[in-house]
Amino acid sequence: MITTGFVAIWLAWLMAGGSPGPATMGIAGTAMNEGRTAGLAFALGICAGSAMWGVAAALGLSAIMLANVWVFEVIRYFGVAYLGWLALKALRRAMSSDEVALGNPVTGSLRAIFAKGAAIHLTNPKAILSWGSIYAIVAPNDASLSMLLGYFGLLYAGSLFIFIGYAFLFSSERMVRAYRRARRWFDFAFAGFFGVASYKILTVRLS
Q1: Coil, helix or strand for 65?
Q2: Which of 21, 46, 52, 96 has an alpha carbon within 20 to 30 A of 126's alpha carbon?
Q3: DSSP string for 40-104
Q4: CB–CB of 84/78 below 8 Å?
């Protein structure tokens, strides 16, 4: 069921996915230096790794949902802490006068670039935590497997939009220059949004 609360969390999910990190900066660096095709291959690899964690989390959470409701409360608070950490990280970047690098390019054949993208998410413990947290935040305690997979589809569509969008945007030199000029304002916006989202999740119980 799509509610106003879910829309707010979905937007936070998009901003979390789009904020600077190993995946997004790797896509940006690869697209800038190796071209759009290589950037897309890397992005699709990241999406593949993300899908594996997302489905695994949905299957695992569905199996223990009713018997271990307290687990989801713990995961929910981990999600709050994660958003708070993202807010502080974005604020520090915004306050810094240092130039932020746009990541190192990933090289090799398209198959190798895809595999490296998948490996980033499959070896990143934050990926499974992020998926587990978002399910615990948006899903009711009695959510069925079909409901969790429905949430997966909506959230994963946002991930595809962000990661593939990065490959297209950062293969354009004009976009790179624009991002660098406005970087600080982007980071202030990220910090504010993550902070508000973290507070709302902490103080409002979604049902």
Answers
A1: coil
A2: 96
A3: HHHHHHHHHHHHHHHHHHHHHHHHHTTTTHHHHHHHHHHHHHHHHHHHHHHHHHHH--SPPP--P
A4: no
pLDDT in tens, the chain (207 residues): 566 767 877 887 888 787 777 788 788 888 988 889 999 999 999 999 999 888 888 887 656 655 566 665 666 677 677 667 767 877 887 787 666 555 567 888 999 999 988 987 787 666 777 787 777 777 777 778 788 888 899 999 999 999 999 999 888 878 777 777 777 777 787 677 667 767 766 665 544
Amino acid at 115: A
Q: Are 46 and 121 in contact (CB under 8 A)?
A: yes
Q: What is the pTM of this model?
A: 0.71
- Nearest-angstrom CA–CA distance, 197 and 12: 7
**In this structure, how many other beta carbons lie within 10 angstroms of the beta carbon of residue 150?**
16
CB under 8 Å to 6, separation ≥6 — which residues? 138, 154, 206
- What is the three-class DSSP state of 110? helix
- Nearest C-alpha neighbor of 103 from the set 27, 186, 50: 27
